[in-house]
Design goal:
By secondary structure, the protein is an all-alpha fold. It has helices spanning 2-5, 21-32, 42-45, 48-51, 65-70, 78-81, 83-106, 108-132, 135-155, 158-164, 169-198, 206-227, 265-285, 288-296, 312-347, 349-372, 376-405, 410-417, 419-441, 451-469, 482-491, 513-539. It folds into two domains: 18-61 and 86-236 and 497-529, Up-down Bundle (Growth Hormone, Chain: A), CATH 1.20.1250; 245-494, MFS general substrate transporter like domains (Growth Hormone, Chain: A), CATH 1.20.1250.
């Protein structure tokens, strides 16, 4: 098994079809993307003991977080469970930064297998924690171990796809990272169906759901990892010629060592670009549902009534409409990952990000006016485009890094850049949530509490625009020499051909078209099912 995971064993032989690699990446990203959908478990978990008939109450508000980690006699608070979501992205960024260099040398197959073991093993450990009602086991299982699996799984295909698609870098990474955004689109309705199946009068069924999903995900992730292949050193698509170095100064043919990036100004500029784009987007994702309800209130169901004046039945009705709005945003988030990343192959990464910041700034600034005018179409349209650019920012940045820093360490450099995501995951929600509470404290009506927040988010985009404008090609001193590059290729076990390690067709060979079709069907059918479920939910917004 160890030999099967060696990078040398993954070098593709002659005739290998590169279109087999994107579904392998999607198989992993669609599984780990369920991190976005974990909130489907919070409500049943907050009633686990009460449902079992133990008479237990929710843990007291004055109970410390540390005490709640080990409490077994009271139901966990939803606010406490929400820390799992934060830990996912903190450990995703940290593990990607720490082990990105190892991944480049070990190869995507080994990293994919470790990711599957961590993510699925973490879910299994969480199931034990739910059964024993020990939250610390959930934190250790899904939050820490699962978060490490998230980081390794997220960056495992980046370098590989960029090397397989040097002619369409943006499109290739957009396909995979689209999968991460679509993971919850499949996982959330799947989890809801399993919860119904396993729920009993004495159990909410979350532990059984975790175990079932862990098994399903493990099968898909292992299949994806074993399908990974890397191109032979120097491989290029048939008929494609690399552009001459003078054709586009923003796209280098040389390579930067990952150890140097912390000291390169351009790295920190792109770090700022990603952080500001994600902070603005992630800040409104978590508040999109309450924002729509509080801004439009009864107008969502044809009443001229403010949110605070609605009764329980009316609140339920507009809550269903808001859920449809959230589903609509998720579709634009996912579609934007592929659309904008593909467009960046034509426009260039710098211009694509400039569009994100200029258009995004105008849209954020227009939202208070659209809300004041009661124009739902403009309000919703603005947020849909904003979320498409939020997703597009994630999918475009790996290609941006490859253009500037070369492809030898792009996966590891991308891993270090994801610390910007971890930062944004704290910054964005804090700004939106605390500004909302501050405005409410001043007595500002609910329908107006988000106005100042929108202008703050515009300020974030201005910072990102300036940082993107300052990005320039790297100076020669940052690139590796030919001798240094040769050493790194040797350490990364790169070979000129699969036959150099005696792998021959075992590492790829001629790919049968049926295998490619089967691989795409394996990821396409679940994705189509998730899209259909999301469209059904989104349709409630238009009813």
């Amino acid at each position: 098994m160890a030999g099967l995971l060696d990078k040398e064993r993954t070098i593709a032989g002659p005739g290998f079809n590169r279109w087999l690699v994107p579904p392998a990446a999607l198989a992993i990203h669609l599984c780990i993307g369920m991190a976005y959908g974990f909130s489907v478990f919070w409500l049943p978990l907050s009633k686990a003991l009460a449902t079992a008939g133990t008479g237990a109450q929710t843990c007291a508000k004055d109970m410390s977080f540390f005490a709640e980690l080990f409490a077994s006699g009271c139901d966990w608070r939803i606010a406490t469970l929400g820390w799992m979501y934060t830990l996912f992205f903190v450990f995703l960024g940290c593990s990607a930064a720490v082990w990105g260099g190892w991944l480049e040398r070990a190869g995507p197959r080994k990293a994919g297998v470790v990711s599957a073991m961590c993510w699925c093993g973490g879910m299994a450990l969480s199931a034990i924690g739910i059964h024993l009602h020990q939250f610390w086991l959930m934190i250790l299982g899904s939050g820490v171990i699962g978060g490490i699996g998230l980081g390794l799984g997220y960056i495992s295909p980046v370098s590989t796809l960029i090397k397989w698609f040097p002619d369409r870098r943006g499109m290739a990474t957009g396909m995979a990272i689209m999968g991460f955004g679509g993971g919850a689109m499949i996982g959330s309705p799947l989890a809801a169906e399993l919860l119904k199946r396993f729920a009993t009068p004495a159990s909410v069924g979350v532990a059984e759901t975790f175990l079932c999903m862990a098994i399903i995900y493990f099968v898909f992730m292992m299949a994806g990892a074993l399908l990974y292949r890397v191109p032979a050193s120097g491989w290029k698509p048939a008929g494609w010629t690399p552009p001459p170095p003078t054709a586009n100064a923003m796209i280098t043919q040389r390579h930067v060592h990952v150890k140097k990036v912390w000291g390169i100004p351009q790295f920190w500029l792109i770090w700022t670009v990603l952080c500001m784009n994600v902070s603005a987007g992630i800040g409104v994702i978590g508040m999109s549902s309450p924002m729509l309800q509080e801004v439009f209130g009864g107008a969502l169901i044809g009443l001229q009534t403010r949110y605070a004046e609605l009764d329980k039945g009316q609140l339920t009705a507009i809550g269903a409409i808001a859920a449809g709005f959230t589903a609509l945003l998720s579709l634009f988030n996912i579609g934007g990952r592929f659309f904008w990343a593909s467009i960046s192959d034509k426009l260039g990464r710098k211009l694509t990000y400039a569009i994100f910041f200029v258009l995004g700034g105008l849209l954020y600034a227009s939202i208070p006016s659209a809300a004041a005018a009661g124009n739902k179409l403009l309000f919703v349209g603005a947020f849909c485009i904003i979320l498409s650019m939020y997703g597009g920012g994630f999918a475009t940045v790996p290609a941006y890094l490859a253009d500037l820093f070369g492809t030898q360490f792009v996966g590891a450099i991308h891993g270090r850049l994801l610390t910007a995501w971890a930062t944004a995951g704290i910054l964005g929600p804090v700004v939106v949530n605390y500004m909302r509470e501050y405005q409410l404290g001043l007595g500002i009506p609910r329908e107006q509490v988000y106005n100042q927040t929108m202008y703050i988010l515009v300020g974030m985009l201005v910072i990102g625009f300036i940082a993107n404008l300052a990005v320039r090609p790297l100076a020669d001193k940052w690139f590796m020499s030919d001798e240094e590059l040769a050493v790194e290729k040797q350490l990364a076990h790169e070979k000129a051909a699969a036959s150099a390690v005696g792998a021959g067709t075992a590492a790829g060979g001629t790919t049968h078209p049926a295998l490619v079709a089967l691989a795409w069907a394996a990821v396409g059918i679940p994705l189509a099912w998730g899209t259909w479920k999301t469209l059904l939910s989104a349709s409630k917004f238009f009813q």
